[in-house]
């Protein structure tokens, strides 16, 4: 009998297992897996005994007293959010997308005059291809820099990676957007590569600001073990190819067209 | 698992009443926001404490979460789920806070163990009504190891574990906080439990060893 994996048992215990009924059925029949689940449960039960202090019955009132003097007269309107400093990066990315879309639109208009009509889907794909291509080349650069970092694993001096974390956070915002778009477009390969990239970026973004050389080495090993850099390069290359296909040939000038018409 | 699960009807009533309070706050009634703060403070505190593992930070997270919620209220659309929304804001701010506090964390592990004292140690109370000195010593050690194991998790692992195991949040909710896919969030929960197990199994399951998983017999 094939036993359940630790991942399946933890997912079952935490109520997030995809095949819950199948695992339950197996557990009913398999003593060994039941024992293993009990060991997991024992650790979690011990953790459950860690108490949370009671902040007191009037805690809500206390919080209100603390924050009331700091509240502005009225809550901010939704659009004011966009002008927070941390949002400006995303705003810049959207502006860049709009410019690309505008340029793509201009090209399409020229095509139209030349009787080579580009569909809306083509424009959309072109914009996506350019934007994701740019995102992937930025990510590739980031991964290469991390891969080339050469920490001394025996050294105990902490390495400050706060700059890398900020870059990872910026890339994460864009990555999420493109992954969702790729999913909507049904581009599974792209979505899966972006998903993997996202997990890695998340790991970097959520690491402590200062890490040991050994931890940095682990990050480097993750890039290699998961083949993230390779996958990003392959998909990036494929996008470049797609870009060539979706970019229309330059429109012929009027004199050429006149000549062709005459002929 | 220590969770407070209100009944479905109760949850619906609170949600409806939250929606009204949000509308009134947006219309300029600041006292309506006070209702929301007083109603949700305890839950947000519980989440914040479990994530930050210390009271001053947890209290700061609670205050900052409500301040941010007020500032962003105009953008909030799913008005019936204010509780979930403020929860998410608190989780995000707790992650920021943990990052800021990283240098203090190592020092904070031991005081946190001493903070509540052996007489209030729930571990000591759970297993035996009349604990022996050996058992007490073991429980103090276990508690210390649990704090260390939780502190050793990455921020995303701790967030995922607290939100799923203790707060019973949906995977999608956790994914939103972690800015990841649902699959990645699920995987983060798994990694967290696996790491906690690895660190704590020797102190919990005396003499019991985990078997190699996924094997055939």
Largest interface: A-B, 62 and 77 residues
In DSSP terms, counting alpha (H) and pi (I) runs of 4 or more, how many helices of chain B? Answer: 10
Secondary structure tally: strands of chain A: 2
Low-confidence stretches of chain A: 251-263
Question: What does this 3D model show about the protein?
Answer:
The complex is a heterodimer of chains A (263) and B (217). Chain A is mostly helical and 263 residues long. Helices cover 70% and strands 2% of the residues of chain A. Chain A has a two-stranded antiparallel ribbon. In chain A, helix 6 (120-148) packs antiparallel against helix 7 (162-185) and helix 8 (188-205) packs across helix 10 (228-246). Chain B is mainly alpha-helical and 217 residues long. The two termini of chain B are 32 Å apart. The chains are: A mainly alpha (263), B mainly alpha (217).
Summarize the structure.
The complex is a heterodimer of chains A (263) and B (217). With 263 residues, chain A is mainly α.
Topology, element by element:
The complex is a heterodimer of chains A (263) and B (217).
Chain A (H helix, E strand, L loop, with lengths): L5 H8 L6 H10 L1 H18 L10 H9 L20 H26 L6 H29 L10 E2 L1 H24 L2 H18 L4 E2 L1 H14 L1 H19 L7 H9 L1
Antiparallel strand pairs in A: 1-2
Chain B lengths: L7 H19 L3 H23 L2 H18 L9 H19 L1 H14 L6 H6 L5 H20 L2 H12 L4 H8 L3 H23 L13
Helix pairs in contact in B: 1-2, 2-3, 2-4, 3-4, 4-8, 4-9, 5-7, 7-10, 8-9, 8-10, 9-10
Identify the notable features of this structure and list them briefly.
heterodimer; A: two-stranded antiparallel sheet; 2 strands; disordered C terminus; B: 217 residues; mainly alpha; 10 helices
């Amino acid at each position: 009998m094939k036993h359940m994996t630790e991942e399946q048992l933890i997912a079952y215990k935490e109520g997030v297992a995809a095949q819950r009924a199948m695992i339950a059925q197996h557990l009913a029949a398999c003593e060994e897996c039941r024992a293993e689940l009990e060991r997991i449960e024992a650790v979690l039960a011990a953790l459950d005994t860690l108490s949370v202090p009671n902040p007191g019955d009037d805690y809500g009132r206390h919080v209100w007293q603390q924050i009331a003097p700091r509240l502005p007269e009225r809550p901010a309107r939704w659009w004011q959010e966009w002008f927070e400093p941390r949002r400006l990066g995303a705003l810049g990315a959207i502006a860049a997308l709009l410019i690309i879309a505008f340029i793509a639109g201009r090209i399409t208009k020229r095509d139209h005059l030349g009787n080579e009509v580009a569909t809306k889907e083509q424009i959309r794909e072109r914009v996506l291809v350019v934007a994701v291509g740019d995102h992937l080349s930025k990510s590739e650069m980031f991964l290469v820099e991390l891969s080339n970092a050469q920490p001394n694993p025996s050294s105990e001096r902490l390495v400050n990676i706060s700059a890398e974390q900020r870059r990872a956070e910026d890339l994460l915002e864009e990555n999420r957007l493109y992954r969702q778009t790729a999913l909507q477009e049904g581009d599974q390969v792209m979505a899966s590569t972006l998903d993997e990239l996202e997990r890695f970026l998340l790991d970097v973004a959520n690491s402590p600001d200062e890490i040991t050389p050994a931890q940095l080495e682990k990050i480097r090993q993750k890039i290699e073990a998961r083949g993230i850099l390779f996958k990003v390069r392959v998909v990036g290359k494929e996008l470049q190819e797609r870009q060539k296909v979706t970019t229309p040939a330059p429109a012929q000038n009027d004199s050429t067209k006149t000549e062709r018409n005459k002929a | 698992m220590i969770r407070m699960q209100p009944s479905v009807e109760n949850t619906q009533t609170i949600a409806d009443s939250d929606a009204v309070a949000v509308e009134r706050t947006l219309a300029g009634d600041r006292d309506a926001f006070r209702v929301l703060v007083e109603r949700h403070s305890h839950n947000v505190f519980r989440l914040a404490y479990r994530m930050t593992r210390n009271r001053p930070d947890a209290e700061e997270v609670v205050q900052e979460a409500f301040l941010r919620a007020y500032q962003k209220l105009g953008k909030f659309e799913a008005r019936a789920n204010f509780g979930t929304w403020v929860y998410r804001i608190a989780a995000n701010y707790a992650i920021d806070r943990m990052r800021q506090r990283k240098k203090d964390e190592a020092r904070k592990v031991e005081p946190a163990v001493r903070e509540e004292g052996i007489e209030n140690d729930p571990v000591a109370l759970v297993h035996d009504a009349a604990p022996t000195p050996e058992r007490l010593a073991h429980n103090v050690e276990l508690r210390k190891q649990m704090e260390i194991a939780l502190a050793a998790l990455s921020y995303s692992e701790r967030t995922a574990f607290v939100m799923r195991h203790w707060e019973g949040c949906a995977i999608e909710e956790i994914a939103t906080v972690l800015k990841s896919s649902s699959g990645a969030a699920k995987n983060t929960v798994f990694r967290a439990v696996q790491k906690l197990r690895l660190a704590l199994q020797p102190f919990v399951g005396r003499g019991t060893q985990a078997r190699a998983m996924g094997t055939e017999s």
